[in-house]
């Protein structure tokens, strides 16, 4: 767990301190310095437009982690609200919300994300929305199950007897009780979301040039794979390390919480 936590902490520090880590502007074009080899001035060399590769990787950390953090927050928020309402209200409300979840869950997440981007248009904002909409239903299902279990406990029954409204009980008692489990289990999907962000940007559906982002950096470097392989290897390694860090953290957190709880959150995803 500590290895994963340390790597994630290091990546977060790089994202926050990017302007102080490198003196170069990641979007500054310098045709005279194109495709330079690594040197004391340009630690990872330059790309086909003369932009410093190290600066672009560092600032790309901010873009990629920022997108994943937003997806994380949105998925948990939507999933918690929908799942909590379905589990606590039951009846027709539960039926409608769960059938809606079923509709989203029948389509593989990447296929659904691509369809939504086709409807919404390209750009990182729409990528974040598309990935959120293709994943929230899994968490709504999980929250509903946990809510149904919590409803049977004594302190919830006591709150009902005391005259607490459904909304108040849901907000004050049920959602806080499952928040820790939900956050821990969602760390298992952080690497998956990172791959979605990078993959969609690689396809030209995410950030627009010249914004530094690892997926689009790999796409830009394809024509130079044999003459300047570092242009692909470095952002590819950044994606690999980040996904590995998220997976290490998620697996360790899940095992510490309860291995039997991981199934509903991640086992059904069609990646």
UniProtKB/TrEMBL annotation:
Pfam families: BPD_transp_1, OppC_N. The keyword Transmembrane applies. It is found in: Cell membrane. It is a multi-pass membrane protein. The chain crosses the membrane at residues 65-89, 110-138, 193-212, 224-249. The keyword Plastid does not apply. GO terms for biological process: protein transport. Belongs to the binding-protein-dependent transport system permease family. This is Nickel ABC transporter permease subunit NikC. It comes from Rhodovastum atsumiense.
């Amino acid at each position: 767990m500590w290895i994963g936590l340390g790597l994630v902490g290091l990546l977060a520090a790089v994202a926050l301190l990017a302007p102080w880590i490198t003196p170069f502007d990641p979007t500054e074009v310098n045709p005279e310095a194109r495709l330079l080899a690594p040197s004391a001035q340009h630690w990872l060399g330059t790309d086909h437009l003369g932009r410093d590769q190290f600066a672009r990787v560092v600032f790309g950390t901010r873009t990629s982690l920022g997108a994943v953090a937003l997806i994380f927050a949105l998925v948990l928020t939507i999933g918690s609200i929908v799942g909590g309402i379905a589990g606590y209200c039951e009846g027709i409300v539960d039926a409608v919300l769960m059938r809606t979840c079923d509709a989203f869950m029948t389509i593989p997440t990447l296929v659904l994300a691509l369809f939504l981007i086709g409807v919404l248009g390209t750009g990182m904002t729409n990528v974040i929305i598309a990935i959120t909409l293709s994943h929230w239903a899994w968490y709504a299902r999980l929250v509903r199950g946990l809510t149904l279990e919590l409803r049977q406990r004594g302190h919830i029954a006591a709150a009902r007897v005391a005259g607490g409204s459904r909304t108040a009980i849901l907000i004050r008692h049920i959602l806080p009780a499952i928040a820790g489990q939900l956050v821990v289990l969602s760390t298992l999907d952080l690497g998956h979301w990172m791959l979605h962000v990078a993959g969609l940007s690689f396809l030209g559906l995410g950030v627009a040039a010249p914004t530094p982002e690892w997926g689009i950096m790999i796409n830009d470097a394809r024509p130079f794979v044999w003459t300047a392989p570092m242009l692909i290897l470095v952002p590819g390694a950044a994606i690999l390390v980040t996904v590995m860090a998220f997976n290490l953290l998620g697996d360790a957190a899940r095992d510490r919480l309860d291995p039997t709880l991981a199934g509903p959150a991640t086992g059904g995803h069609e990646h």
